[in-house]
Design goal:
This protein is α/β, with parallel strands linked by helices. It has one domain (about 1-310): Metallo-dependent phosphatases (Purple Acid Phosphatase, chain A, domain 2, 4-Layer Sandwich). It is built from ten helices and twelve strands. It has helices at about 40-50, 55-65, 65-90, 120-130, 135-140, 170-175, 185-195, 195-205, 245-250, 300-310, and strands spanning about 1-5, 25, 95, 145, 150-155, 160-165, 215-220, 255-260, 265-270, 275-280, 285-290, 295-300. It has a six-stranded mixed β-sheet with strand order 4-3-2-1-11-12. A six-stranded mixed β-sheet has the order 5-6-7-8-10-9. Helix 2 packs across helix 3 (about 65-90).
Length: about 300
């Protein structure tokens, strides 16, 4: 029997471990602290809700704070994430990590101004989602921490695939339908929109088919434990899960998909043949996976189940 401790969204908080006996640690991302930046997300959400302007959070912050103060807040955020991963590393167990949307691990882009037009806005988002590596400053030198961004670990006991960064649905081509783009630009966007599922599909082919598979997606699949419940959020009342994670689970049917990002939930729900687990938010957010042959059982923290009331 293999026991895996799965850690939820910590946002700079040191984890309080409820399960003392485990062989591996999975970290679903958002280890970096957002508390210095959170007040600005509320202002940004308000701007999006009222004016529906296309402006990235990064550009909004630079306008609000200036480059120097913005850089200082990002530095503090990364340092807090590094401290969290150092703590997880100290347990002496293998730690598989995927970056969340706060973990400064987005892919680079050649686009200078993402909000110049519809094409630059859509293409820059795609470039960011395709980042192949977690931020080195978070994981470098930590001997037990393994970067699982677009990665696969496969053994005779289990497979685990990683996909991080995503903070909302990736239904890019829906946006293209109403966008002012040329046919050439439309073709480029379509090609790159297929790159994420292509990468995940290649990983899936390499798995050990005799062992159970666990899919770590920073964001839970679209439509599963993902409805926003926040009046200050421009997406209040809407589903905000990952459409890529949903499609992957329905097509490939991994035994378990563990994710988080949507802080309102802690629990599990079936999506086709896959059990989806939202691991929750905060220093106590965690579950334990028990693997016995092809069966995977999920153990929750009772106090968190009582608090959130949505285990099922």
């Amino acid at each position: 029997m293999i026991k895996i401790l799965v850690i939820g969204d910590l946002h700079g908080r040191m984890p309080k471990i409820h399960f003392k006996d485990f062989d591996y640690i999975f970290c679903i991302g958002d280890v970096c602290d957002d508390r210095g930046l959170r007040p600005y997300t509320i202002k940004w959400f308000s701007l999006l809700k009222k004016n529906k302007e296309k402006i990235s959070f990064k550009q909004f912050l630079e306008l609000e704070l200036g480059n120097e103060e913005y850089a200082s807040l990002i530095e503090k955020s990364i340092s807090s994430g590094r401290n969290v991963l150092e703590k997880l590393n100290s347990f002496g167990k293998p730690v598989f990590f995927v970056p969340g949307n706060w973990d400064e691990s987005y892919g680079s882009t050649k686009i200078k101004d993402m909000d110049q037009n519809d094409y630059t806005h859509l293409k820059s988002w795609l470039d960011s989602w395709l980042g192949r590596r977690s931020n080195k400053r978070l994981i470098q030198g930590l001997e037990n921490v393994y970067d699982l961004q677009y990665g696969l670990y496969s053994s005779s006991e289990f497979n685990v695939l990683g996909y991080g960064l995503i903070s909302g649905p990736e239904n890019l081509m829906e946006g293209v339908r109403d966008a002012e783009v040329s046919e050439k630009q439309r073709a480029i966007l379509k090609k790159f929109s297929l790159e994420i599922p292509r990468r995940l599909g290649e990983l899936w082919k390499r798995r050990n088919k005799k062992a159970p598979s666990i899919f770590i997606s920073h964001n839970v699949p679209y439509g599963v434990l993902d409805k926003i419940k926040d009046k200050k959020n421009h997406a209040d009342g809407k589903h905000a899960g990952s459409t890529v994670a949903r499609d992957f689970c329905l097509k490939k049917k991994p035994e378990i998909c563990v994710g988080g990002h949507i802080h309102e939930y802690y629990g599990k729900k079936k999506l086709g043949k896959t059990t989806v687990v939202n691991v929750g938010f905060g220093k106590e957010s965690q579950v334990l996976l028990d693997i016995r042959r092809k069966k995977v059982k999920v153990k929750f923290v009772p106090s968190l189940v009582e608090k959130y009331g949505n285990k099922k």
